[in-house]
Amino acid sequence: MRRTDLIPFLLGSEDRRTPGTVASGQSNGTETGQGGDSGKQASVTGLANNVCFLTSKTNFGRDNAKCDRLQSIHGRERKRMGAFHTKLVKRGDVAEGTMAFYFEKPPGFQFKPGQYVDVILINPPEKDDEGIARSFSIASAPFEEDLMFATRMRDTAFKRVLKSMPLGTEVEIEGPYGSFVLHNNAVRPAVLLAGGIGITPFRSMVVQAAETRLPHRMVLMYCNRRPEDAAFLEELLKLQSLNEKFTCIGLMTAPERSHRHWEGEKGRLSVDMLMRHSKHLADPIYYVVGPPGMVDGVHTLLNEAGVNDDNIRSEEFGGY
Q: Are 148 and 86 in contact (CB under 8 A)?
């Protein structure tokens, strides 16, 4: 099977940050994190046109040959970052099998769209081997009142507690972490390629861009099996009317399984489809977020389309 054949995405992904992909360029910082599931990989990203992704896993309580070095990196970073207590104020479904959780924004907490935090349960009523902490992209924009995270729900102790704990329950958050943020040079457009719950950092980016009238031209291609699986899709489509520099293209790989009528793009992402929606953009930077197979396949597809690794930035969300 060719790597590009992975692009139907089968998007049961989570929003825990896991691998980066292969690229070249100068790095400007290190992004690491923790998680109680399949592990979280570090990515080293660069400024402007250059980006390098280091694929190395860290795990809670699991043996990993690279774990000690990455934990020491993360330990140094965590000393610079803050630890905050916050309370759950709201939660609700945003797609089938996907929920959003809203927390009070702690005083003094600041972040950039695209960053993530570690969420740690405090004295939860149940635990399992996957731990009491997860890393989540911040799906809310910096100007919004609450911190919002969205996640695919799975039958783990962490998810059960998160779904059932009373409003007002306190959790700890640490961060923000990460340098997966929009480039500064507004002359260069951004092409955002999201698979499933990989939409979360992009939702923060495009909502903030509309609010602050960011001059960047942004094209979002959002891939799911069905419209029912696509968190925030209706909001993102409506956002186009508020920001003339933003375009949202939905892509469904299995629309025939949907109960809704879908008139947007269908099938697998291809070079032809990608070029049809981005050929008018001059020298864009591509951002890719989703499950590991999707990110790997899209990276290969971009290379086949003639995109240099220096112009690709990516993060992988591993399932848990």
A: no
